[in-house]
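We modelled the chain as a single entity of 356 amino acids. Its sequence is:
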Amino acid sequence: MSKNFFEIRNGHFAASEKNKVNKVNLKIEKQGDIVSLLGPSGVGKTTILRTIAGLQKINSGEIYLKNKIISSDNFHLEPEKRNIALSFQDNSLFPNYKVIDNINFGKKRSNGNGITLNVDDIIKLLHIDPILEKYPHQISAGEAQRVSLARSIMSKPDLLLLDEPFSNIDQSLKDEIQYSVKNLLKEISLTTILVTHDSFEAFSIADKCGIILNQELKQYDVPYNVHHEPNSIDVANFLNKGIFIDVKVIDSECAVHRLKHDELGEIRGKLSNNFTSGSKVKLLLQPEDLIHDDQSNLKLDVVDRKFRGTNFIYTLKTKKGEHLPVFVHSHHIHQHEKNEKFGIKTPIYIDHLVCF
């Protein structure tokens, strides 16, 4: 028996020898929480969703929903008895039904979980109004995804499973729909597990994020902690958060910890992990960690510059050949060209000293 709204205990999931995830432990404590599963393609995220929905059996472990077991080594509750809705990345609409009929089909199969929904509101929120009388073959992949999502929500499930629900939606519309869908799910307290490979999407929508790499759930935490305090080099590299540089721990006993880099000098902040003074470690350096200062005596060579709208990302090279990324606001008084000197404010202070 689980006291959480949803729980996976020591779950082993497999679609093939390569596509499997082992020893998954995951809790959703209260109804209405949104969880994202983040990882590269083919890592097993969709396999987990299919198993939760009952479309395939769990290899071992237990899955609980609303204090009742729905999957285990020796028990498998049929999909139609789980009151779980799964919206696939690929078009899963009924081809002989119009869009409006596909949406209303979700309403017909509703088991009723107490949620009050207005189909017209869902249609407007997902911008489906113009295509209601069309058939699935007459609409785009992005429109089909939105129809599938509307149908799933209208079935009033206890648990909503979304497989890359925004992947085929135009960027100009994606942010608006993500914002609207999140607000709707929160308003009706619809517990949701979302699969994505987009960290920005996962962080903006979810209450908690699970990072799946190398057949394991590597980290399961609130987005802020996953972003600022990845718990392994694998997670940091997957999130493409920056680079690792070699430093030495000078002082780990005081309130503000101190590290030393051969060229950058002293780096201060709070160590996320416990290391004794004198330890040689690798420090995660992210683009937002270093501050540009034209007046600084610490200057490095610019080897690359990328324009990202509101920011430039400069890449600086140390004498050891390390390439350090730095954010600079695009309205900075002047731009720096390749091979120019670029000043870094010292001493360097980083809130989260993520070291391994």
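As a brief sanity check on the tokenised model: Helices lie at 45-53, 99-108, 119-125, 141-154, 171-187, 199-205, 223-228, 233-238. Residues 199 and 239 are 7 Å apart (CA to CA).
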